[in-house]
Amino acid sequence: MNICVIGTGYVGLTTAVGFTAVGNKVIIVGKNKKKIDKINKGVLIIYEPGMGKELEKCVKNKSLQATDNLEYAIKNSDIDFICVGTPSREDGSIDLSDVEKISQDIGKVLKSLNEYHVVVVKSTVVPQTTEEIVIPNLEKYSGKKAGKDFGVCMTPEFLREGVAMSDFMKPDRIVIGEYDKKSGDVLQNLYSGFDSPIMRTNLRDAEMIKYASNALLAAKISFANEIGNICKIIGIDSYEVMKGVGMDHRLGPHFLNSGCGFGGSCFPKDISAIIAKAKELDYEPILLESVMDVNKKQKVRLVDMLKKRVGNLKGKKIAILGLAFKADTDDIREAASIDIIKRLKSEGAIISAYDPKAIDNMKTLFPDIKYAKTAKDVLKGADACLVMTEWDEFKKLSENDFDFMKKRVILKGRKMLDDIKGSEGICW
Ligand code: UGA
Asked: Lower CB count within 10 Å: N or C terminus of the chain?
């Protein structure tokens, strides 16, 4: 099939590269000329294991091209995927301005198309967005009718950063929200080569499935953190507890890892968006608000633990191991390390940080802290060390490396380095 993917973020890039890998031709549309040039040269603009090779391959065999020309992309495709960003506004509610604008722009192109075309929303959007914003714009600007002249679907993306390619190629499920059967059939046909169960439903159910999934995953993490905090006070290892809990097939072992909480471009943004949507509907989502509260407080707890161990932070050298919001990505959006650095700075600590991939990104936020070249270097002379990301590389650190610290205070926001003397977990 000929596919147009609009948006060059994580979801857009993965969708574009993923669909070419299974034999389709894709034109990816972006606004940033530099990004477009890089994609056309087969150069990946993010750090994502496995994606670089695939991108190189599909650019070489000409199955993927990038452009800033939306009209060209749509006119040379049968189906468009809207993968634009849906960031948070100041108040936590969703900013749909890019979705609004792109649906108007697509509508303008649809006006001059003679063939049936399907528009698919893949961006994470709050329930009713496709029906109340996307379809009205497509119809208004094209002068055509959804269901008759063009099709509309909403298919949420469930990929995780760090394993984006494999999540895209083999998802647990593919959810197809459809305006009508014909639209859904076109999308199901595109996914026919995927070995995953397909659920067909309506547009707003599909939109809500994405939020409910992310909210439940985030709730599991906050639950594990709350139980973990209680465990810590009693002197219980919360990981042993969750091992036992996860053996119940009704509960499952996943996403019960306690630590410094969830970050990333999705959970914090999406939970805030659905909270705001609920409030707009006059519903008080107390459980979801608590999920966010517990998450926020984990970072405060880590700094409190640090102060208990080393006293006043003014002038203390604090080493930070890991900046990315999780391992195997250079993404620092909503990373726990950001909150921690802000707190440490405000208390006058001298911060030195190391991350295998995320230093350049963090420098744009904090150009004024020190960045070490290696994990070993960051430890030298430190009064304490905070482990914020579970990079495999850190597992190679030995007792000897920690001997170079001034004091052996090793506080862990992520479960690792358990054999290192003097290390202490936030919930274990
Ligand atoms: C998450 C979801 O897992 C994806 O299914 C979804 O598609 C994506 O958001 C999205 O909406 O785009 P992602 O943000 O890439 O994916 O990363 P996760 O692996 O889910 O981790 C999120 C955060 O939770 C990380 O900071 C991680 O360290 C933390 N986490 C995860 C825990 O603290 N404990 C756990 O047990 C699991």
From this structure: N
